[in-house]
Amino acid sequence: MLRMLRGFEYLRGDSPIHRLDPRVKIVYSMTFAALCFISLKNTFLITLLILNILVLIIAKVIKRWLMMLRGSLIFLVMIFTLNLLFQGLANVWLALAYTLRFLVFMTAFSMLFLTTTPEDLSLVMVKLGIPYEYTLAFTMAIRFVPTLSRELQIIIDAQRSRGLELEKGNFFERIRKYMPILIPLIVHEIRRSYLLAEAMESRGFGYTRNRSYYYEMRIRKNDVLALLGIISLTVVMAFLGKKVMWPF
Amino acid sequence: MPRRLAIEVKNLWFKYPESEEWVLKDINLEIEEGEIVAIMGENGAGKTTLIKHFNGLLKPVKGYVKVFGLDTREHTVAELARRVGLVFQNPDHQIFASTVLEETMFALKNFGWDLKKAEERAVKILKELGLYKYIHTSPFMLSGGEKKRLTIASVLVYDPDILVLDEPTVGQDYGQKRRFAEIIYRINREGKTVIVVTHDVEFVADYIDHVIVMAKGKIVAEGNSTEVLCNDEVMKEARLLMPQLGLAALMLRKHVEFRGNFLRLPIFIKEVRRWLNDA
Ligand SMILES: Nc1ncnc2c1ncn2[C@@H]1O[C@H](COP(=O)(O)OP(=O)(O)OP(=O)(O)O)[C@@H](O)[C@H]1O
Ligand SMILES: [Mg+2]
């Protein structure tokens, strides 16, 4: 579960993709997410997936993506089986396609989050006219994923050291066993959020609506090229998705 | 008769699954039953990672860890935890119950104790650690030092043979530290092995004789604390500050004929007397 989230966590790195303007990457993620909905043919979706994977390789974040894939395997299997149950066994290909669609969708956004700093993302949101408070909440939520997963691990370790066995017992017993883990986690996070709020207010957060920003974004030549590439690729893929008879 | 080995670590290598770097590199270690040992080292040296091997929370990638001869790879954490009590650094990572009594009884319930017996036992431990007056209070209302003592109580309660404390003295005042030392000595007198992870050189200098120093995933020194803590090179490598008395002796030695290393005041004073008489 937490491994899956790691696939959306910014990874410090340097690659042509990292250097792109965040807005270009958002366009990329949006269009690829949209492309998933054009066709439910497996071969088409796999083509999209391969294109996405190529981009991840260029961005040098493919390892993280594989980690996310491992973490989300249960989900993918679940989507597949549920679809199979509801659509009937005859529709294996369809069930697979729904699963693949979910995967491509996740991958498209994973590229964005893996290669863009939360600060850049929030800057884009501000530029789009979203109030800074919401933007900040969003970036902080992303920021705390790694901290949260570390903390959760420590709490689980501490309770297991006192003999808690999460694997044992029936369904209801197991749910009850999560209380000693959830309570410290929640208490800890609430306390932390108060501390954070105090620290921010004491540094003048909320003093004025006219914030100044340290970085300004600029569109460069590479961004324009990438954008053109994305647009043409999207048009081509949309056309192919609609017009070509994809097998399966 | 040689004493039994409480903990035996042999050629232990470990890295976390999501990273490439070895966090523990070829650790070899033997701790005898009934010893008090301090494990020291800079931030990120791997101390916490090492002690998590003692009750099987982490399993060696290479090499092995044995607890009273039991290989940790072949036993569950719940089995090993009965022999090895691990007290984590931050009480907030474990406190969850609605009363201090409940919190203390948690492990006993997990180990399937009879409720009445469990309560008696918990009350006894809470009295010993000076927390009896809070027995029906919420653990979240306790002060930092009291919370810390509560976490020790919640582990001591099931009578483990080995007690491992991660950074027990961080953020504690002088009185609290003395209290921890008393607790450590008392349970040690009952025959228990105590392992204390700490940065606190003065605490070790004052109370613990056997010390192990780690740096960058390796053990860089082990032995009597006077020798180890007063060794300039070791302390630099581990980025620890030498205890005040050790430093004082080191400086004095530059000017006068001064012998040996010192961690405790009485012996230091004795040496000063000797030197004054000679001079
Ligand atoms: N869950 C984890 N996943 C990945 N790496 C980790 C994890 N926990 C610790 N590490 C890394 O392992 C190394 C050793 O950490 P460890 O917590 O054992 O050090 P420590 O000696 O206890 O330090 P401190 O004095 O700060 O408590 C550090 O580099 C740390 O970043
Ligand atoms: Mg530690």
How would you summarize what this structure contains?
With 248 residues, chain A is mostly helical. Helix content of chain A is 74%, strand content 0%. The longest helix of chain A has 30 residues, at 132-161.
What's the topology here?
The complex is a heterodimer of chains A (248) and B (279).
Chain A: H1 2-6, H2 16-19, H3 22-35, H4 42-58, H5 62-87, H6 92-115, H7 118-127, H8 132-161, H9 171-177, H10 179-201, H11 221-243
Chain B: E1 5-14, E2 24-32, E3 36-41, H1 47-51, E4 62-67, E5 70-71, H2 77-81, E6 84-87, H3 100-110, H4 115-128, H5 144-156, E7 162-166, H6 174-189, E8 193-197, H7 201-207, E9 210-215, E10 218-224, H8 225-229, H9 232-237, H10 244-255, H11 265-278
Parallel strand pairs in B: 3-8, 3-9, 6-7, 7-8
Antiparallel strand pairs in B: 1-2, 1-4, 4-5, 9-10
Helix pairs in contact in B: 3-4, 3-5
Bound molecules: adenosine-5'-triphosphate (ATP) and magnesium ion.
SS-based class of chain B: alpha/beta
- Taken in chain order, the helices and strands of chain A follow as HHHHHHHHHHH
The global form of chain A is: flat
Number of helices of chain A: 11
The ordered H/E elements of chain B are: EEEHEEHEHHHEHEHEEHHHH
Helix content of chain B: 25-40%
Q: Rough shape of chain B? A: globular
